[in-house]
Amino acid sequence: MDSVEKKESAERKKTIFSGVQPSGNLTIGNYIGAIRNWTLLQNEYNCIYCVVDMHAITVRQIPAELRRRTYETLAIYIAAGLDPEKNILFVQSHVPAHAVLSWDLGCFTMFGELSRMTQFKDKSQKNADNINAGLFTYPVLMAADILLYQADLVPVGLDQKQHLELARDIAVRFNNTFGDTFTVPDGYIPKTGMKIMSLADPSKKMSKSDSNPNASVGILDGYDDIIRKFRRAVTDSDTVVRYADGKDGINNLMTIYSCFTGKSFEEIEKEFDGKGYGDFKSAVGETVADSLKPLREKFTALMKDKAYLEDIMRMGAENASRIAARTVSKVHRKLGFAQLK
Ligand code: TRP
């Protein structure tokens, strides 16, 4: 391939967009369900991964912590294997077009639609003293994130499916009114490890904002911490390691073990045949702690080099802004805004 052909084939690649909020310590659920899968996509797709700090302020943040977590989230992206040369890695607030398109799209989103979002209902319950307009229009900003880059595919967990569907509806509505403007995005739900449950209450999703520190395992947790948390994981009164209804705790541990080893449930059942839960829990803990060790080491080195992380942020913001500006200009022309050349 000569360079022109290379460029053309790059342009034919589908675009992927996704993002993670820099609010709280990312868990192994975020790693397995999102970031690790992203690294598998970087050769086949044009990938754009964002640290969505503007979404994070829909609930109160401590400014210094938000800033630190923004650096940390970017460092995790890179430490997990996302190559900043192959992917666009950037911070949402560095590209003002997100706020601009979010306003435009908000005028094409119905009050009723936003009222039906289950995450809004959940979060308003949890933050009853701060049900702000940003919390309500959160899905519009998310639609803007996706539609700005004409993303074909959006890897998201199940909990974000409703938001993605709204983004599709907004895109279709705009296209129907003004002619083809936005690519209508599809969800890209990874096959395995979509939902990792809490270690303390395996009927609940593992959440980085859980108040019980034993409920979730952070990507950056220390080696011994990880092992300790798995040893304490809530299971059931059965003794056989097998995947079955009603064994949420064991099912969750088997899922995690399978995600980190590539072993099937059958293989895991055989491996622990005749052994108890204690052995199994230790094995899961050690496997997870071992697997995350290189990531943590790389992360620690990256966090010592703020200037490097800022270079990546700057490069990402420039590349993202260039694409975003094209979409905003097209949208504003269609809406009838007077545009200066
Ligand atoms: N709302 C997503 C979450 O909390 C994060 C997010 C924001 C996102 N914008 C996005 C995910 C765009 C995918 C695409 O998980």
Key attributes of the depicted protein:
341 residues; mainly alpha; Rossmann fold; Tyrosyl-Transfer RNA Synthetase; 2 domains; two-stranded parallel sheet; 14 helices; 56% helix; binds tryptophan
Description:
This protein is mostly helical and 341 residues long. It folds into two domains: 3-189 and 306-335, Rossmann fold; 223-300, Orthogonal Bundle (Tyrosyl-Transfer RNA Synthetase), CATH 1.10.240.10. It is built from 14 helices and five strands. It has helices at 3-12, 28-41, 53-56, 63-79, 97-106, 111-115, 118-126, 133-148, 161-178, 223-231, 248-261, 265-271, 277-303, 306-335; strands spanning 15-20, 46-51, 88-91, 153-155, 186-188. The chain has a three-stranded parallel beta sheet with strand order 1-2-3. It is globular. The structure holds tryptophan (TRP). The site of tryptophan has 12 residues, from β1 and α8.
Query: What small molecules accompany the polymer chains?
Result: tryptophan
Q: Low-confidence spans: pLDDT under 50, at least 5 residues?
A: none
Distance between the termini: 37 Å
Major sheet: 3 strands, parallel
Return Rg in Å: 21 Å
Instruction: Tally the helices.
Output: 14
Shape call? globular
Q: How many DSSP E strands?
A: 5
Please bin the fraction of helical residues: 55-70%
Instruction: Label the CATH architecture of the largest domain.
Output: 3-Layer(aba) Sandwich
Structural class: mainly alpha
Spatial ordering of strands, largest sheet: 1-2-3
